[in-house]
Amino acid sequence: MSTNTSLQFSSRELRDLGLAWVALGFAFAIFFAGGGMAAISNVVEGGLLGPFLVSLLTAGIGFLLHELAHKVVAVRYGQVAEFRADYGMLFLAVMSSLAGFIFAAPGAVHHRGMLTEREHGLIALAGPVTNLFLAAVFLPVLLVGVFGGSEFVGLVGSRGVTINLFLAAFNMLPFGALDGNTVISWSKGVFAAVFVPSLLLVVGMFVFGFGLF
C-alpha cells in the first residue's frame, strides 16, 4: 500500500527536533570530554563551540536522521507520523553525561494507520539503514581529516563513523521495542543481512581501534 501523502512537519515537531538536536549536542560534548563537572570546566576553558559543533554534526545528526527515516517511510505507506521528543529522556541524557556515561533516547516517531507486517518491518529497518549510510558518508570525511592533517575534520569523521555504526547495530538488536525486533518478526533474512554486518563492523572498530573517540 502506498499513497501520495506528502512529508510535512508541524511547528511542534520542528521544535521537538530542534530541542532534541541541541540537547544531544550538549550531552555528547560533555560525554566526549570525559563527563562530570571537570569535563564542563575543560569544555568551557577550551571553548564550547568546537566540541558542541562536533557533537551536533555526529551524534545529533545520527540520532535525528535515524528517527526521520522512520517518518519518511511511514509517510510513504500512508501513515500519519510525527517525531515527539521525550523531554525526560533528554534530561537523562544530559545528567548521565555529567556522570561520565551516556544514555540517549531523544524521542520517537509515532505513527498511526493500517500496516502490513512487511511495511512495519521496512519502517523499522529505515532507521538502522540510515545510520549505515551515514557511517559510509563519514568515512571519507575521516580520511580527508587524517590525510589532510585537519584534526577537527578527522574528529568529525571518526565520531560520525563510530556513532552511526553503533546506532545501527544497537537498534537492530532483536529485543523489546528496538527496531531489530520488528524487522526479525517480518523477515529473518533481512534482519541477518543488516544486523550481522553492523555487529561485525562495531566489533572490528573496538578490536582494531578504528574510529574510536
From TrEMBL:
The chain crosses the membrane at residues 20-40, 47-69, 89-109, 121-148, 160-178, 190-212. It comes from the Archaea. The keyword Transmembrane applies. The keyword Protein biosynthesis does not apply. InterPro entries: Metallopeptidase_M50B. Keywords: Membrane, Transmembrane, Transmembrane helix. This is Zn-dependent protease (Includes SpoIVFB).
